[in-house]
């Protein structure tokens, strides 16, 4: 049985997840993911390109990540992408990929140096329940919470909040579908009205001819 990157039953049923899993496993076999550790920008850029080739649209989202590792006795804290928390030469930010699908999926392939060896990647369904939080996941004894980045470091990403990106796109698609339905209904009603008027005219002409 092939390795699963999530235990989310909803996500496991989506075809997009299986496409993502296939791409990641191909990258693993080729040794590409080994260079992703600590390189969030390049990993998201590469993954976004590969997803587009299989018909999955996605957005690169700038964020910051709080990790809490609890072994039952002590808790270790790791903060990724927070301001003034980077090494010289690094940008104090973090980016992930979020798919523009019915079930938005967060993809983070740059944490293998911080995660268990058997679970080196984050591929999880976005579950946003709090303002300013993108999503929160539990992986074995590690809690990961992704927050929106308040002080943007990568303006070329045209940063918006995650909800603005996903909900905005979904609302636009719903509006287009509704517009199509309204246009079809209007055309149908027009045709029905035209047909009834033609039938009425024919009946009136028939009555006049009959009387004469």
Give a brief outline of the structure.
The protein is built from four helices and seven strands; from the N terminus they run αααβββββββα.
Describe what you observe in this structure.
By secondary structure, the chain is α+β, with helices and mostly antiparallel strands. It has four helices and seven strands. Strands 1, 2, 3, 4, 5, 6 and 7 form a seven-stranded antiparallel β-sheet that branches. Strand 1 and strand 2 form a beta hairpin.
Write the layout of secondary structure elements.
Elements lengths: L8 H4 L2 H15 L10 H14 L4 E13 L4 E6 L13 E6 L5 E4 L13 E4 L7 E7 L2 E7 L13 H50 L1
Antiparallel strand pairs: 1-2, 1-3, 1-7, 3-4, 4-5, 6-7
The rough form would be described as elongated
Helix and strand pattern? HHHEEEEEEEH
Instruction: Report the count of strand segments.
Output: 7
Radius of gyration: 26 Å
Helix content: 25-40%
Distinct helical segment count: 4
| First and last CA, distance | 86 Å
Give the integer mean of the pLDDT values: 82
Strand content: 15-25%
Low-confidence stretches: none
Category by helix and strand content:
alpha+beta
Largest sheet features:
7 strands, antiparallel
What's the quaternary structure here?
Answer: single chain
Question: In total, how many domains does the architecture comprise?
Answer: 2
Key attributes of the depicted protein:
single chain; 212 residues; alpha+beta; 2 domains; seven-stranded antiparallel β-sheet; 4 helices; 7 strands; 39% helix; elongated
């Amino acid at each position: 049985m092939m390795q699963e990157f999530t235990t989310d039953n909803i996500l496991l049923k989506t075809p997009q997840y299986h496409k993502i899993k296939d791409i990641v496993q191909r990258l693993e076999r080729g040794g590409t993911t080994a260079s992703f550790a600590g390189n969030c920008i390049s990993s998201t850029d590469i993954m976004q390109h590969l997803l587009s080739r299989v018909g999955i649209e996605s957005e690169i989202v700038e964020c910051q990540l709080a990790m809490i590792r609890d072994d039952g006795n002590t808790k270790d804290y790791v903060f990724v992408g927070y301001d003034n928390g980077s090494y010289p030469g690094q940008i104090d930010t973090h980016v992930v990929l979020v798919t523009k699908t019915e079930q938005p999926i967060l993809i983070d392939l740059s944490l293998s140096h911080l995660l268990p060896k058997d679970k080196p990647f984050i591929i999880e369904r976005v579950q946003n329940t709090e303002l300013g939080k993108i999503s929160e996941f539990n992986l074995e004894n590690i809690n990961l919470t992704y927050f929106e980045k308040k002080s943007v470091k990568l303006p070329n990403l045209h940063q918006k909040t995650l909800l603005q990106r996903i909900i905005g796109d979904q609302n636009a698609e719903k509006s287009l579908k509704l517009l199509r339905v309204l246009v079809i209904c209007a055309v149908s009603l027009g045709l029905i009205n035209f047909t009834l008027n033609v039938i009425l005219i024919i009946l009136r002409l028939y009555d006049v001819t009959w009387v004469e």
